[in-house]
Amino acid sequence: MTMSDLPEARTRPASTWSAIWVLPLIALLIGAWLAWNAYSQAGIEVQVRFTSGEGIQVNKTEVIYKGMPVGKVVELTLDDEGSNKGVIATLEMNKKVESYLRSNTRFWLVRPRVTLAGITGLETLVSGNYIAVSPGDGEPSKKFTALSEEPPLPDTTPGLHVTLKAERLGSLNRDSPVFYKQIQVGRVKSYRLAEDLSTVEIKIFIEPAYAHLVRKHTRFWSASGITVDAGLGGVKFRTESLASIVAGGIAFATPENRQDSPPTDPRLPFRLYDSFDAAQTGIKVMLELSDFEGLQAGRTPVVYKGIQVGILKTLKIESGLSSATAELTMDPLAEDFLVEGSDFWVVKPSISLGGVTGLEALVKGNYIGMRPGEKGAALKREFVARPKAPPLDLGAPGLHLVLTSDTLGSLDIGSPILYRQIKVGSVQSYQLSRNRRRVLLGVHIEPEYSSLVNGSTRFWNASGITLTGGLSGIEVKSESLQSLLAGGVAFETPDPEASASTRRIPRYALHADRESALQAGMELQIRVDSGDGLKAGTPIRYKGLDVGKVERVELSEDLQSVLLKARITQAGERIARAGSLFWVVRPELGLMRTANLDTLVSGPYIEVRPDPGNSPRQTHFVAAPQTPAASIKEAGLNLVLSTPRRGSLKAGVPVTYREVTVGKVTGFELGPNADRVLIGILIEPRYAPLVRSGSRFWNTSGFGFDFGLLKGAQLRTESLETLLEGGIAFATPEGEQMGRLATPGQTFPLFDEANSEWLQWAPKIALERERK
């Protein structure tokens, strides 16, 4: 094959385009888009001059409008131009707010501020300080001067904007509250001196929901702080609320006779009165009085159930001096009760040998009492005062009853009826009974508490203070402060299930005190040798618990003893038995024994040991001269020791074996022929085998003293206890001399001292193990 037979290669001209140019082109497009986006999103820089840069941080402090960020501080420089130097903050503002950047736009720095009116800027504690902006009108501008504080609320804000004129500002401030019936309905916007420099103009804002409450004849008064009106008649405090005490405040109301007043014209200013009384917003009531002693215009209050509902504004005495016409200013809240049937009367103290009534009027001064008529009756504004409090109103809902008492005491009309120190009613009236020997009190119990009274209820006079005390202290009892001042009646119902009285107006006795009203239990008479330290109220106790008390102490007819009239209030059926024992517990003081030391402070008391069996019933007892022995026979070996003299021995002193206490002396008596003293001892069961027929007993009381030239001096005593109080010791010989076991009741001689041989005896005698 030749070269000519080979195929020919086809040739194609090379292209001038390369794919490598795509990447630079894409990068160019992205760069152009980023540049355009940065240009279109770039903020508008404005400069705001502040007096200080404190609290402003570059790239951190934001510009906030209605809670939304619209810019931030990007630069902070000193302003050296002019005499009033400061700092220039450059703000980068969002382009969307460019149309709001005009000459009257205002900027100010918001930071936390604590004043008496409250706390503002609290949110900056978390987010930090920020610059607030309020758009305004005018020419476009990029240079501004910041305000030193937040601007006042604009007049364009929905609501009522009113101007008040006052002689002085008082404690009012920006944001001080405006009240209507103690509900905050607005606030103070701003204040300034009037153009004549003689008054203060205060601008306030009322929320839209309450704007209709302000009428043409509405009265405004300062409710700032506390108003104090003091005199011999008492001290009167008035304040609108706790907030107004601290931050000041303004209250307003429309007088009752101006309720048809048209809406106010916001352009006309109102006068701001100094006080509620000066504003004269209360309801005007005329009252004719026949007794007007002690009443003072501007100070005497009108009181309903202890609450002031009005004040005596003026008092005009008629020409005959026998009556007077009073003008009362009543609280608008009492309007519905100023109707037919409302009663007014003068309350004043009455002091006599029989007691004091109306004590609260003695402290506060005379006042005018009020009892409203039925709600819904015809309105009335003129009344004639009653000469005294109105009688019991039997038509009022609730329980009406009568209490009978020997004396009225400090009770008066309106005195409270108390149940567990809760007021559940009041005394409505009082008068003498038909025979003039008793006092009848009309009482009213509120409907919700009527069920507390039934046939078992007991009433007592809870007026004043009861003092009881002794060396242990003084106990002061008073049912309540109200009963201390105005008198009062308390009651209890021991049996809540008892049936109620069927009488239309039940009658109950009014006891002098709670104890006499609720006394129960059994009456006993206890005869004691001496009444030293015993008195009415001395407790009767069993195992440390009070089971009764002595009610009366008197001499017996033969003058040889003292009779205690006592009442047992617990376990009476067991105590009022022939087998019960009573004795007086007094302090015991000795060198080695002291007991009942609490009676040094509290005084002696009566201890009782109830009948252990079922003895016949008994109400007259003779107290034991001392604490009786235990009624339960103690286990052990009872023996008798015979001695010519008792010495210093007494019941309870120890019986020892090798200086270990193994028993005690239980008692003593003269022998049959009165020539010996028989001493009873009790050996504990575990140590009974130690006593044998050969045992020897001797008196260890006191001490022995031997002296000789050769052997010197020897001092002998069993123990410090036997040295002071006495005691008995014994020893048992060894071997055949030991003898048999002692039998109960066996008699042994008691020697004055031990033989030296006895002290050497040391027999081995097995003892029972002590049970644990």
UniProtKB/TrEMBL annotation:
<dbReference type="GO" id="GO:0005886">
    <property type="term" value="C:plasma membrane"/>
</dbReference>
<feature type="domain" description="Mce/MlaD">
    <location>
        <begin position="523"/>
        <end position="610"/>
    </location>
</feature>
<dbReference type="InterPro" id="IPR051800">
    <property type="entry name" value="PqiA-PqiB_transport"/>
</dbReference>
<feature type="domain" description="Mce/MlaD">
    <location>
        <begin position="43"/>
        <end position="136"/>
    </location>
</feature>
<keyword id="KW-0997">Cell inner membrane</keyword>
<keyword id="KW-0472">Membrane</keyword>
<feature type="domain" description="Mce/MlaD">
    <location>
        <begin position="398"/>
        <end position="459"/>
    </location>
</feature>
<feature type="domain" description="Mce/MlaD">
    <location>
        <begin position="159"/>
        <end position="219"/>
    </location>
</feature>
<dbReference type="Pfam" id="PF02470">
    <property type="entry name" value="MlaD"/>
</dbReference>
<keyword id="KW-1003">Cell membrane</keyword>
<feature type="transmembrane region" description="Helical">
    <location>
        <begin position="20"/>
        <end position="39"/>
    </location>
</feature>
<feature type="domain" description="Mce/MlaD">
    <location>
        <begin position="638"/>
        <end position="696"/>
    </location>
</feature>
<keyword id="KW-1133">Transmembrane helix</keyword>
<dbReference type="InterPro" id="IPR003399">
    <property type="entry name" value="Mce/MlaD"/>
</dbReference>
<feature type="domain" description="Mce/MlaD">
    <location>
        <begin position="282"/>
        <end position="373"/>
    </location>
</feature>
<keyword id="KW-0812">Transmembrane</keyword>
<protein>
    <submittedName>
        <fullName>Paraquat-inducible protein B-like protein</fullName>
    </submittedName>
</protein>
